[in-house]
Specification:
Shape: globular
Number of helices: 18
Helix content: 25-40%
Strand content: 15-25%
Number of domains: 3
Bound molecules: 2-deoxy-2-amino glucitol-6-phosphate
Largest sheet: 8 strands, antiparallel
Oligomer: single chain
CATH superfamily of the largest domain: Aminohydrolase, N-terminal nucleophile (Ntn) domain
CATH topology of the largest domain: Glutamine Phosphoribosylpyrophosphate, subunit 1, domain 1
Amino acid sequence: MCGIIAHVGTDRALGPLVTGLEKLEYRGYDSAGVAVKNGNGLDVWKCSGQVSELKDTIDTVESSATLGIGHTRWSTHGPPSDENAHPHTDESDRVAVVHNGIIENYESIKQILLSEGYEFTSDTDTEVIPNLIAYYLDRGNEPLAAFKHTVADLEGSYAIAVVVDGNDSIFAARQGSPLVLGVEQDGYYLASDVPAFLDYTDTVVYLEDGDTVEVRTDGVDIVDENDEHVQREVQQVDWQPDETGKGQYDHFMLKEIHTQPTSLQKTIEGRIDADEHVTDLDVDLDLTDIDTVHLVGCGTSYHAALFGSSILNRCDVSARAIRASEYDVNTGTPPENTLFVAVTQSGETADTLQALRQASDVGASTLAVTNVVQSTAAREADEPLYIRAGPEIGVAATKTFSSQAVMLTMLSQHIARVNETASRVNNVGQLLSDLRALPSAVDRILKSSDAGDLAQEHLDKNAYFFIGRGLGCSVAKEGALKFKEITYEHAEGFASGELKHGPLALVTERTPVFAVCADDCEKTVTNAKEAQTRGAPIVAVSPPSHKIVDTADAHLSVPDMHPVCSNLLANVQLQLLSYYCATELDRAIDKPRNLAKSVTVE
Ligand code: AGP
């Protein structure tokens, strides 16, 4: 969703600001803009549409400004338009603001400002911020004081960056929306996430909720929620700048599918003891005497949660996967001794954070299975469990699903071991050694997959159905989500046994059915046959020796490994299938319409 970049340094600021906007594009947006402070005022460029369109206007500009702010906007208050794009300024163009989040009390602030004669030109909540700063400036406050008074008046969630005409600082604040400071020799960056400035520096300071910051070329002053001046830890991120580029690939999604052998290796590294076949997760949280586990996430992360809950249940640990947006209505108060596991790639998904807070409030132990170090979920949970998949730029989650599922598999074995549950997942020795072999198995799939050819045969159908049972059901649901997300074709994932309870009415010769049979699933074979009898072409996603292959019209092959691994490999085949279908249909694969990488509104 919205992304912020700000820079103060000794060189021209426009270049890093525009690069930052390009790096933020993956979050999803519909308009973009920048503002810089020149010797004689503020210059603002903004438009609805792509960063490339903004860039066309800015490229002609000779600006020597060394300080500025930029923004990619995903519309909430008001449609995408030039007027609603950020930065927003006050009516006299003294103050420019970029904002991520929602100002809940903007209407009451706006009424007061209107009655004082301030004028508004956009539909946004954000526009109250520059006008409120102007209001305080007009009453004799210095810029820093005007900014602080304004922040004190705001309710809601926000990350804000501000430039004020005639002042050499960037002012910023964080409350409930991410904001990270990048530190380099001659300057600083502020951004919604690290990739925005990773080309320039990997030295970062993660700001805390309640922090207000003044950033100048020669230093930073951070004040916390108690109005105390504080030093925050300076850290190095271990993401490399080339991880945020497409490299040799046409799309980030394809790159991320192809880097799964490496990302999975990193997820597993040091967490499985080869000799004793035990997992070592280094979780500083007592996981004994857990009565139930709630695995909570949205979209792909929810499917990883479903996958994890199946494994936990197989280990005799009671577990439920719950959609984060349904957590409050569908769960009630979590029972005593509940372990709440937030599954979230970004660590910033509003629905998931809301559920995490709800569980924390009633005393549940909480873990965050996340990819982003120091993300809100990582910080708010009792303990983070980092999946270490590296930056994921494609809106469609691929490598992070695989890493989340592997992380949850290892967590399930850890919980089963410390609780000495009677039965751990079948054949745990094989599971752990197959997990170690998973990266090279993914590599083999990537080199041998027939998904590209199959995609050619299955374009232009009415709908696409994905079925599976147990672990295969989570893979089927994820396969369908991926397919609809990037092809814009209708796709649904079902528990295979459910097909005959309704969806079968939709089945025709123009609705291919992809049957995930990476497990011992006789019943899925029967369900696939029921669809085939009604004319549907059946594509088996299974080991070559599985009996469904005899029934199926086509086959995507996966190695015969432990079911956990074979199912994850089936998912890789389905990722490739979606990718190749979307390529043939010429879709915006990395930035599908209407979607954002990280959904920070409920
Ligand atoms: C998956 O391809 C989607 N981009 C989406 O469903 C995503 O998984 C969901 O929004 C949750 O995001 P999170 O993992 O960052 O919390």
